[in-house]
Structure formats: C-alpha cells, structure tokens
Amino acid sequence: MKTLVLTAHPDLTKSRINRLWFVALSEQENTTTRDLTAIGGETQQFDVETEQTLLLAHERIVFQFPWYWYSAPAVLKAWIDQVLSYGFAYGPNGDKLKGRECLVLVSTGGPAESYHAGGYNQFTMDELLKPYQQTANLTGMTYLRPFVLNGLAVAEETDLAASVPAMLSHVLDPELDPKIKQARLLKQIAEDQAQAAAIS
Ligand SMILES: Cc1cc2nc3c(=O)[nH]c(=O)nc-3n(C[C@H](O)[C@H](O)[C@H](O)COP(=O)(O)O)c2cc1C
C-alpha cells in the first residue's frame, strides 16, 4: 500500500508536533510526504496535473494539519479546491479517487476533554471533521478513523515523542479499514474450520 501525506502547516520550521510527524513519515517506505505550504508558495497555487498524478499513484491519502479555528490551515482548502476537480474527483467520469482511502491526521491545542458535549469545544473531533468525511464519501474514498492528538497547548516534549510511534502505527496500519480486517479474520476462521474438518 502506498501512502501520500499532504501536510498543511503554514510554517513547519515553527511547528512542535507536525514537523516531528512529517519527518517520521518521510522516513517510511512506500510513503510520499508533501509540504503543501512549500509547494504552493505564497499564492497557494498547485500544479493540478502533478498533484492528481500523485493521487493516482497512492492508495491511502493522508491530510495532516494543526487544527486552526475548527478547520485546517487555508493551504489545504486551496489544494482541495484546485486538485479535487470536476471530472477527476466528482461529476461525469470523476471517479479517479474511488476505492482509495482517506485519513485525517490532526493536532489540537485544546485538551481531549474539551472535544465532547459539555466540554468548552462542545463537539467531538469526529463531528467537527465531517467536511473531510463527506469529501471522502463524495469522491468514493473510504474514510478511515482519524488520528487526533489533543492538548498541544500544554504537551511536554515526552508526550510529543511518544505520539510518533503511535501515529506511525495508526497511519500506516494496512487494516485500518474494518472491512479489510474483518475479511482477513473471516478467511482465517474459514481456513481453520476447513483444517479442523480435514483432521476429524
Ligand atoms: C490560528 C490558530 C488557530 C487555532 N485554532 C485552534 C482551535 O480552533 N482549536 C484548538 O484546539 N487549537 C487551535 N489552535 C492550536 C493549534 O491547533 C496547535 O497550536 C497546533 O496543533 C500545534 O501544532 P504544531 O506544533 O505542529 O504547530 C490554533 C492555533 C493557531 C495558530
């Protein structure tokens, strides 16, 4: 499985966590990382053909960003608006992303308990990430369980370092789609039953 990581941070050199994740992901096999701010430049203009060709070469698309005002930094919106175009991602023959997987990797300043009903942010991250879920849905991608690291406002260096292996095992898990995991388990059960029947 090939993974494309689209990192949307306004300045990775000033980042505490997304830079760590970006570097760790860049070192993985079968993984392509893209710093969208560096690529899009000041005008946030993307070469649509290059971006779409890259999408076609990967099975899992990861949107990585720090949580800014209950959304992603503007460069990700610019990339989405330009690259997920009519006839490519939606509309007539717009089925090029169908069957791929989409995963959100996000850090928040607010603590985990704030992202619940009754917390000061009122809504869960699953609720607040609905636009990404529906973008995946409309384009025929399977939306995977996001990886969310909360509490960056008070996180210690040890928390940041500890998140790296947890993030890697989540983002690169080939069975993150429960349908894929279930299919393997059912196949295993059928094989075990066939083996038991052959012995008895
Ligand atoms: C402009 C801006 C808006 C932000 N909005 C939110 C927000 O809505 N909710 C939240 O929990 N944190 C918010 N934060 C905190 C960031 O999510 C946090 O600093 C970031 O995840 C840290 O990632 P980094 O170390 O890679 O920069 C905001 C930060 C900035 C600079």
End-to-end separation in angstroms reads 39 Å
Total E-strand runs: 6
Order of SSEs: EHEHHEHEHHEEHH
Overall pLDDT metric: 97
What general outline do the C-alpha atoms trace? Answer: globular
Number of domains: 1
By helix and strand content, what is the structural category? alpha/beta
Output the number of helix runs. 8
Poorly predicted sequence stretches spanning 5 or more consecutive residues = none
* Percentage of residues in strands: 5-15%
Share in helix: 40-55%
Write down the CATH topology. Answer: Rossmann fold
The rounded Rg comes to 19 Å
Provide keyphrases for this structure:
Rossmann fold; 8 helices; 200 residues; single chain; 42% helix; binds flavin mononucleotide; alpha/beta; 6-stranded parallel β-sheet; 6 strands
Q: How would you describe what is shown here?
A:
This protein has 200 residues and is an alpha/beta fold. The protein has a single domain (3-174), classed as Rossmann fold, CATH 3.40.50. It contains eight helices and six strands. Strands 1, 2, 3, 4, 5 and 6 form a six-stranded parallel sheet that branches. β3, α4 and β4 form a beta-alpha-beta unit. The radius of gyration is 19 Å and the shape is globular. The N and C termini lie far apart (39 Å). The mean pLDDT is 97. Residues 9, 15-18, 66-70, 107-110, 152 line the site of flavin mononucleotide (FMN).
What is the topological layout?
Blueprint: E1 3-7, H1 18-26, E2 31-35, H2 36-40, H3 48-56, E3 60-66, H4 74-83, E4 101-107, H5 125-128, H6 130-138, E5 142-143, E6 147-149, H7 157-171, H8 178-199
Parallel strand pairs: 1-2, 1-3, 3-4, 4-5, 4-6
Helix pairs in contact: 1-7
The protein binds flavin mononucleotide.
The site of flavin mononucleotide has 15 residues, from loops.
